[in-house]
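In response to a reviewer's request, we include the raw inputs and outputs for one of the modeled complexes. The two entities were modeled together in a single run.
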Amino acid sequence: MTKRNDITALDEVAGNGLLSRRLLLRGGVAMAGAASTLVATQGASAEPLMEPEWSRYQGTTVEPMGRRTKHEKDTTRILTNPKGDPRTQHARTPHHLLNGQITPNHLHFTILHNGIPDIDPEQHRLVVHGMVKQPIVLTMDRLMRYPMVTRQTFLECGGNSAALFSNEPVQANLQSLHGLVSNAEWTGVPLSAVLDEVGIDPKAKWMLVEGADTAAITRSVPLNKALDDAILVLYQNGERLMAEQGYPVRLLLPGWEGNMNIKYVRRIKIVDQPALTYYEARNYSPLLPDAKAYRFFFVNEVKSFITHPSFGMKLNEPGYYEISGIAYSGAGRIERVQVTADGGKTWADAAVQGPTMHKAFTRFHIPWRWDGKPAILSSRAVDDGGNVQPLRADFIRERGETQKPVTNPFGFPNQHYNSLTSWGINAKGEISHVYA
Amino acid sequence: MFMLEKISLAACMAVALSTSALADDKSGLGSNVGLGQPITESDIKPWDITILPDGTNLPPGSGTAAVGAKLFTEKGCVACHGEGGTGGANGAVITDIPLAGRGIEATKTIKNFWGSSTTVFDFIRRAMPWPAPRTLSDDEVYALTAFILEGNKLIPPGTVIDAKSLPQVKMPNKDGFIIRFPDRI
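The model returned the following structure tokens for the whole complex.
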């Protein structure tokens, strides 16, 4: 009994009980010796098994739209404006209740500045004009006939994780802190195919992209990006776009700040200068400590956070746990994720779920033996361009932190936070948000 | 010609013509597809509302703060931005809070932050009043813009705001920006 239980026999690869990621590889060398020691048989022996109630009667009838079990009814988004008052509405993804890499469509984060428009796809038009040889207009039927591409990519609001600019850690869960990022498989028409058709003036540098929503949101996008990997998206995880994601067509700029991925696209104007529209001139120009501000930040830089375990969860007993989380970079592919259990004194490499994709969620895992003493968990990602997720001290030195503690986890004291997130575990196994 | 119910035959032929006429100038996949229907800039005009910082695309018309002040009440702006635009549930549009010394959480206002006066016109015309955007005439938008700029002491009293004067308004924080990744532009 004691022998099979004895995960203490495994050597740590970093402080406070981090174990080798190789334990997770099936058939690996380490597994042969270590597997049996990971078999959990803690506590009193289990009850005898009985035939449960639900196995003895016919189940309910299948419906045209699949339905989630009532036991998972709390896996929902957090809303900031559930009554639709005249202001912005945010819905945040519950990453602490999800796993894998794809965000289900009904749990994908969204932000609407003036509600969800009800657009008739038969009447929706997309016009491309400005510094072009021939302005064109497209019906959705016509747009659907272009050759399409499919790719996974994350979408992240430039204001995601903004509460971590607070000079004191805001006590809120993962969903509240990092819920404005999600990851989906998108299918649509490469924008370059449509731009090719209109014949762009070589003097043009930017495009202005505008939605058919009530707020007519518009952003300036460099043509470099437009011709690189931009997509006019029609499908989200295999089905037509959710209304709140821009049905019937949205712009996808893989790895770039959410607000630029204009929903309900109805107009693209090719121009020689950016427009300084409201959201680029104001909201998404992050302030620096010297009261200067960054303009055209665009890229969501390399970032990661631990989803399991995380704030608000409880470790009920010492022993084996898997630490797992999400890493992504708007500049490329995740190459490496390191995890610490001792607040950054020592780090170990986590197993990175392959195949890794450019500008998409990459899940990481690492086995951990919690000894019942206080621990601080954190993760740190590196992308294939060599960009490293900055340590908090370095990040704050450059980008600043608030003068007063942030009290509202849904507020936006600043934008584009990509430093670490640390979870402090006390001797009772309770998890809080800490800075390490 | 699968789409006769939606697009007239004439339009389809126009597509075919324009595609072949431009064929020599195009390259890549898109040129083989050619599904766009030609349209003229004048037919796009009703949607072409974005203003560039140098004033490009500002429409004819003009307005003053005196007219704008009345409109600010008549058009219901006060309900969300307060009497005289100085408060309200959705924030003051006329205010004098400084940017410096208040940390990274400083409130960004039109006066202390916005880099271009044209953004004021563009945003009001595009998105305000919140419950009924794109219902104001261009003269009304000029007048409301003048009201906000004058209230913020960014233009002398009585200035007429039009396509010529608006881009010339000096915004105090115009040079307060650093391009984050110049190589991506």
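As requested, we also summarize the result in words. The longest helix of chain B spans residues 9-22. Residues 48 and 157 of chain B are 31 Å apart (CA to CA).
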